[in-house]
Amino acid sequence: MKAVQRITLASPVLNGNERKYVLDCIDTGWISANGKYVTEFEKQFAEFCGTKHALTCANGTVALHLPLLAYGIGQGDEIIIPTFTYIATANAVKYCGATPVLVDCEKDSWNMDPKKIEEKITSKTKGIIVVHLYGHPADMGPIMEIAKKHNLFVIEDAAEAHGAEYKGQVIGSIGDVATFSFFGNKVISTGEGGMVTTNNSELAERMKLLRGQAMDPHKRYWFNEVGYNYRMTNIQAALGLGQLENIEWHLGQRRRVAAQYIDSLAQYNDLFTLQPEMPWAKHTYWMISILLSDKIKASRDEIMSLLDADGIETRPLFYPMHQMPPYFEEDANYPVADRVSSRGFNIPTNATLTDEEIEYICSRLVFHCRNNL
Ligand SMILES: *Cc1c(COP(=O)(O)O)cnc(C)c1O
Questions:
Q1: Residues at CB less than 6 angstroms from ligand 1
Q2: Which of 173, 79, 74 is nearest to 132 (CA)?
């Protein structure tokens, strides 16, 4: 059995009103950072998350920078983040001149381990950024308790977790702020784009101001401070609205794909395991992740090359922050993140994968693993 076409890891599916809304922007000339699609996308995204406010912005990285700026984070401050995340989480902290303080992840969900947070809190700690990795929510209950006890804010980096749920509550409304990305490979996309959600009206006002160069709302072209141009365009929002109208379909397709993978692969847990779905979680399966057992002699990268030769695109799990030059730690002690990162990779998780493609991927994966015992 040979795949005729390469099976891609992730690609956007624009099968709703996206085309119609984008053409409307072009026909009316509303292509820049104002317009009805920006307003409507924000309104509907806030409804989706159950928050008072949702603010569009240029991408998921500046979506993290905005609330940190609004909280006044700067030099000398420390922000707790998981070491096992995409680098944007750490970079946003660095942009403020503050220091990201790293925490290891849990063996089960691979998210920040609540039991390892308190030992990292100092008098300089101002907040926690939680990441819902690969679409699986972090264990928010204990994290919110720790934050409350130490008077810290909580930002949820939900770039990968649109529509995920923690104990029945949609992600985006549990922490003080949540941030989303609409990059091309995310659950829904605007090409590049981001969103910040919050119930805190004062914080929302402050983020809105900073997003628009901090222009005085009562005096046009008057600026009292240095702001940023972090706006999203009406065209991007038009794409986003089309995507959001269909988000239940997108999430449903991911669950269909995930269910078939689990059904076909769960019996091989001597060869590898999947990132599990905790009983209290609704995983969005942004990415299906495989963790190779130590019984397999081949390296993770070797297994990935074999799949590549079969026409199956994969990608390594994130490298933990403490391993890379900008955030390198000499005496790093993050055993769970090190292990998961070195033995894990993502397999295709498109909304459009067919049953046959999924079966093909599963059979090649099992074949290569068995061949390398
Ligand atoms: C994608 C992603 C971001 C950043 O989003 P961009 O839109 O690419 O800037 C931030 N955090 C996590 C965990 C992500 O996966």
A1: 59-61, 85-86, 88-89, 131, 157, 159-160, 181, 183, 194
A2: 173
CA angle (193, 57, 321) in 5-degree steps: 70
**Nearest C-alpha neighbor of 351 from the set 276, 250, 259, 280:** 250
Q: Which residues pair with 181 in a beta bridge?
A: 194
Task: List Cβ neighbours of 325 (8 Å cut-off, separation of 6 or more).
Answer: none
Q: What is the pTM of this model?
A: 0.97
Class of CATH domain 248-370: alpha beta
**Which atom of ligand 1 lies nearest, measured to the CA of 185?**
1
Q: What residues does each domain of the chain span?
A: 18-244, 248-370
**Å from CA of 224 to ligand 1 middle:** 30
Å from CA of 243 to ligand 1 middle: 18
pLDDT in tens, 23-47: 999 999 999 999 999 999 999 999 9
Question: Ligand 1, closest atom to CA 92?
Answer: 10
Single-letter code of the amino acid located at 284 = T
Segment 123-140, tens digit of pLDDT = 999 999 999 999 999 999
**For strand 169-170 and strand 165-166, is the pairing parallel, antiparallel, or unpaired?**
antiparallel
| CATH 3.90.650.10 matches 18-244 | no
